[in-house]
C-alpha cells in the first residue's frame, strides 16, 4: 500500500476528509504484520503489530483501505496478543477497525455523484473482505451507486484470485493457475475496469493481466470513487 | 526454481494433465451448484450448521466416556469392539478376524479409514482378496489408483476413460459408453461377488454411543449388501466418528448429504445394530467394529487442533477449495486431500514430512464458509504453519520441521524494518528514489505476472504533503 498503491490510500483519506471528517495518518505506522503471521512467524508478526498498536492508541475509529489488513487487525490481533500486556490495546484496536468501504457506507453513507463517462466495471471482492469481514456487499453498493457505471459479473466471481500473500511465491504454479482462470473470467466479462478493495488482489490480477499485455485496467475502489466524483488528480 | 519438492512435482503433474483437470473442475463446480440448491434458505442453513457444530463439539468434549458407553452398548448388541492404536494394529485385527473365519475374500463398501490403513495391500500380502464394491472405488481399484476425492473417489475419470478401462479389464462383456451401461456392467460383476465373498467390510459415518449403533450412508446399496450378505461384517472407523444420541443424527444426516452431493437424503441409510438374531432371515453371524486411533488422540490433546476431529467427511471443503479444484486429490499425495487433508495429514505424518501442504493454501476461507460443522480450517492451517516453524516444543508431530535459517532471517529483518518507524520511513524514501533500480523479477511471482514498480512517492510522503500527518 505504502510503496505500491499509495494513491489508493490517499484517495481513501481524501474521500473521508471531503465528507467533513478530520483524517489523521499516524506517521509511525508500517505493516499490520499479516505477512509474517500467515507464514507462521508469529513472534515477528507480534513485534510489528505491537508498533501499530502503539501508533493507534486512543479511541478514534481506524480506517484500513485493504480487506486483508483489516481482517488481520480485527480478527487476529486479539488472539496474537492473548496473555500479552498489550492485549487490552489489541482488543481496542480490533473493535475500532473499519475496512474502508465499511466506513464509507456504514458510517458516512457516502453520497456518490458520478461525473465520469460510461464504463463497464467488474468488482472483485477480496476473500478477506468477503468471508472474514462479511463486507463484500459494501463495495457493490458503492459501485452500483454510480449512475454511469454498468456492472458486469465475471464467472465464479467469489473464487479466490490466487494471491494469498507468500502463497504466490511459495506455490507459484498453483497461484498462476488460479490467477490465470481469474483473468480469463475477467476478460470474458467484457469489463473496462476491475475494481477491488484489496491491494493484494489488485497487484496479483493487474500483474497477470499486464503479462498477457491486454485486459481491463485494475483500480482500487477508493481511487475509482475519487476519480469519478470530481476529485482532483492525486 | 532450482529444486522442486515432492509436492511441487505432483502439482506440476496435476496442472499439466488438462483432461483430468477438466474432469475434476467440471465435477466440483457441479457439486458446488448442487449444494447451493440444497440449502435454499440461508438462515435455516446457518441454524443447521450451528446445531451440527454443537453436536460434534458435545460428542468430542465427552469422547473418552462416550467411547466406553459405545463399547458397552455394542457388546450388549452382540457387536464385538476392537481398539487399534495404529494402522498396523487395525490391519492385524481385521486379518485375525478373517483368518478365524477361514475367509479368503473380502467385499468392501466405501471406507476412507480402510484407505488410511492401506488395508487392501495388507490383505493382498496375506493372500486375501479385497474387492471394492463402491462403483468409484471399484473403478480406481481396477485402474490401480487411490481415491482422488473422499466421497467421489474416481471423479478424476471421465465416463469414456471408465469405458476404456472396463473394456480392457473385462473384454468378454459388451462395451458400453453410457453411464447407465457402465453401472450395469459393474453391477453384473459385483452381484456375484457379494454372495461369494466370505466377509464384508464397511466404514461408518456415525457411531451412536447411547444405542451402540453403526450408521452407514450410501447411494448404491453396496454398503447394505456388504454388511448383510457375507457371514461376517467388519466395520472400520476412526474413534472420532461418534455421537452421543440417536437424536443427534437427523441434523448431521441432513448436513452431510446436502453438503456432499446436494441430496436431501441418500438412497440408503443403514443402521447396523448387531448380528443376525434368532429367527431373522438374513444378516451376518458376526459383527465387528474396529476403532482406529492412528494419531487422533494426539490431535485431541490440543484444544485448538481438536476442532479438526469435528469433521463428518462430507467433502464440501474440497469441492469448494480453489486449490483442490485445480489439482484434484492425487496431487496431495495423502489419503485425505483438500483443506481437511491439509489439516489432518501433516498432524498424522508430521510437519517435517508434510508441512508444505499447509503452505499450499491461500487461506481464502471458501472451505470454512461451507463446512457443515464449522471447522475453522484456515485458522487451523495457519496454526500448522506456525507449528511448522516454531522453535519451542510444540505438541504437533514434526513441529519446527519446516523452519529454515534463511527464511527465519528474512522474517527477522522484515520485523526489524517494520517495527522501527524511522528505519521504515528511511527505507521507503530510498525505495521511492531508486524506483528504476528495484528488481524486475521475483522468483515464483514473475513466472506469471509483471512485478509492480514502486511509486515515486510513498503514502507516508503524500499524507504528510497533504496535511494528514499529525494532530
As for the number of domains of chain B, it is 3
Strand % of chain A is 5-15%
Largest sheet of chain B: 6 strands, parallel
- Pair with the most extensive interface? A-B, 74 and 69 residues
**Order of SSEs of chain A:** HHHEHHEHEHHEHHEHEH
- Multimer state: heterodimer
Structural class of chain A: alpha/beta
- Uncertain ranges of chain A: none
The CATH topology of the largest domain in chain A comes to Rossmann fold
Discrete helix count of chain A:
12
Summarize the structure.
The complex is a heterodimer of chains A (about 230) and B (about 475). Chain A has about 230 residues and is an alpha/beta fold. Chain A has helices at about 5-20, 35, 40-55, 65-80, 85-95, 100-105, 125-130, 135-145, 165-170, 170-190, 200-210, 220-230, and strands at about 60-65, 95-100, 120-125, 150, 195, 215-220.
Compile the SSE list and pairings.
The complex is a heterodimer of chains A (234) and B (471).
Chain A lengths: L5 H13 L15 H4 L4 H14 L6 E3 L2 H14 L6 H10 E3 H8 L11 E5 L3 H6 L3 H9 L4 E4 L14 H4 L1 H18 L3 E4 L2 H14 L4 E4 H8 L6
Parallel strand pairs in A: 1-2, 3-4, 3-5, 5-6
Helix pairs in contact in A: 1-12, 4-5, 6-8, 10-11
Chain B lengths: L5 H11 L1 H21 L3 H20 L1 H15 L1 E6 L2 H14 L4 E4 L3 H6 L1 H7 L3 E4 L2 H9 L15 H11 L9 H18 L2 E4 L3 E3 L4 E6 L3 H7 L3 E7 L3 E2 L5 H13 L6 E5 L13 E7 L3 H6 L14 H5 L1 H6 L10 H12 L1 H4 L1 H4 L6 H5 L6 H13 L15 H14 L2 H13 L25 H7 L6
Parallel strand pairs in B: 1-10, 2-3, 2-4, 4-7, 5-8, 7-10
Antiparallel strand pairs in B: 5-6, 6-9
